[in-house]
Amino acid sequence: MSSFSDFNQQSDVRTDGEHQIQLDMLSALCRAVRKSPPSAEVGEILERLVAYCEAHFMSEELLMRLNSYDSYEEHVGEHIGLMDDLERITSAHNSGNSGLLAEQADSVFKLIGQHIGTHDKRFSDFMAAGMQGK
């Protein structure tokens, strides 16, 4: 049977893979919204992206709680803000207001990239430090 430390290490590797999938999906969204007019695939990409981010954030937050992560509340706040941004893009797309979609998609791509490079990196470092002590 695997130890809790093994679980944490496997989860960290899986989370890094999930981050790459998020960025790939966001990149696809950025490409799709640049089509004139934005293609029908935008709604499908948004739907998959929102569902994926919800699942990823929930799993990441569970891992944080299991490890008593000291910046849990701040990190979750970032997740909430990112989901709010995705909801705004979805609402704009669904209402036919495609004028700012490219700008909004680029903004969310940058925000999630920054989130991964800062908040998720800090959590990854926290996990690595905890595993060294076990």
Task: Report the end-to-end length measured between terminal Cα atoms.
Answer: 17 Å
Number of strands: 0
Structural class: mainly alpha
What global shape is seen?
Answer: elongated
So what's the oligomer here? single chain
Biggest sheet overview = none
How many domains, in number, for the residues? 1
Mean pLDDT: 86
Series of secondary-structure elements, N-terminal to C-terminal? HHHH
Label the CATH architecture.
Up-down Bundle
Number of helices: 4
The CATH homology group name? Hemerythrin-like
Q: Using only CA atoms, what is the Rg?
A: 17 Å
Provide a descriptive summary of the structure in words.
This protein is mostly helical and 134 residues long. The chain has one domain: Four Helix Bundle (Hemerythrin (Met), subunit A) (Up-down Bundle). Helices cover 83% and strands 0% of the residues. The chain has four helices and no strands. The protein has helices at 4-33, 41-66, 72-94, 101-132. Helix 1 (4-33) packs antiparallel against helix 2 (41-66). The longest helix has 32 residues, at 101-132.
Protein topology:
Elements: H1 4-33, H2 41-66, H3 72-94, H4 101-132
Structure characteristics:
4 helices, mainly alpha, Four Helix Bundle (Hemerythrin (Met), subunit A), about 130 residues, disordered N terminus
Brief digest:
83% of the residues lie in helices and 0% in strands. It has four helices and no strands. The chain is elongated and about 50 Å long.
